[in-house]
Amino acid sequence: MNHNTPLSPRPLSHLSEVHRRVLTTAQLRAHGVPAAEVNEQCRPDGPWQQLLPGVVLLHSGPPTGEERLHAVLVYAARERTAGVPVQPGAEGPHRPTYTETMVTGLAALTLHGFTSAPELASLKQIDVLVPRMRRLRSTGCAHIVRTAALPTPQQVKGVPVAPVPRALADAVAELSDANAVRGLLTEAVRGGHCEPAAVVRELNNAKLLSRPHVVDAVDSLLAEGRAIAEDRLYRMVSEHGLPDPVWNVDLRLPGGPHLGGLDAYWPEQAVAVELDTRAPRQDEDALWSEYARKREHLERLGITVVHITPKKLRDAMEQQAAVVRTALMASADRDPAAYVVVLPR
């Protein structure tokens, strides 16, 4: 048999091109190719090659990045699908279901469109996320990453991919280059892929915030994220016709204590906006307690405090503008606020 001979009894015409080239030995058996024949075809000078244990590439020569990607997913999922023949789909090419597995790390970031992540073909290994209890080992280009709880994958080009924050954490875990780490984290925020808090949460869960080069990158990330959130807040006021506030101010009682900083304040209506840019790190509880104390103190003085997260500003700016507008309109029905001194921050 040569590599151009159709496999029987089930033809492969219903499979998309890459899935016709990357098959498990179980799938080949279902197509009528016994193990002995697979071994013969995968001999050193043969037309096929074994990319990973139980995974065969049906051509000679270097595999493409897409072929390696699917080979890793097939390898990680094969325990769950072994012996199940691939059936033609009712609509279009059949795409296999990669059960309890997804691409993560740098390969996932590449699929998400990160320009600072390498191309698939240049990656020495492809990280694949699986449940902790799976009996799998890293081998060849497949690097197994275990987790107690799988996130919900996103489908990118028919491939299950870890969400950006989780993929970032798995990529950073393997990187020692401070510039590479900073570049990936910065692109995540500037490119609108996710909010800084989600990234820091995953880095914290992965216990990566003890590494100095990661901490430095996170500090830059938080500063970047805050600047973007402040810019969106300016746009919200301008684009949704809100009256101009005073920006970035400190409030103080006359001759009394400092009350705290605010991102925007409308003195006539005694309405304040505070951006909630907390990052989930070890001091989150203490920081949240400080936020809560400040808010309670201001509200006892008759000042309405509107908390807005960067994510809400990004995803629902119009809704947040409506919340602020409502607070400004409601000020006419409230008792006058205590007099406070407004100072530039």
* H-E order: HEHHEEHEHEEEEHHHHEEEHEHHE
| Helix segment tally | 12
Uncertain spans: 1-16, 81-94
Return the average pLDDT rounded to an integer. 84
Task: Determine the fraction of residues in helical runs and give it as a percent range.
Answer: 40-55%
β-strand amount = 15-25%
Oligomer: single chain
- Provide the domain count: 3
Please outline the major beta sheet: 5 strands, mixed
Described by the principal axes of the CA atoms, the overall outline is: elongated
Number of strands: 13
**Gap between N and C termini:** 78 Å
Describe the structure in your own words.
- By secondary structure, the protein is an alpha+beta fold.
- The protein folds into three domains: about 1-100; about 100-225, no CATH class; about 240-345, Endonuclease, Chain A (3-Layer(aba) Sandwich).
- It contains twelve helices and 13 strands.
- It has helices at about 15-20, 25-30, 35-40, 65-80, 105-110, 165-170, 180-190, 195-205, 210-240, 285-300, 310-315, 315-330; strands at about 20-25, 50, 55, 100-105, 125-130, 140-145, 155, 160, 245-250, 260-265, 270-275, 305-310, 340-345.
- The chain has a five-stranded mixed sheet with strand order 12-11-10-9-13, with helices on both faces.
- α10 links the parallel β11 (about 270-275) and β12 (about 305-310).
- It is elongated, with a radius of gyration of 27 Å.
- The protein starts with 16 loop residues before the first helix and ends with a strand.
- Mean pLDDT is about 85; it is low at about 1-15 and about 80-95.
- This is DUF559 domain-containing protein.
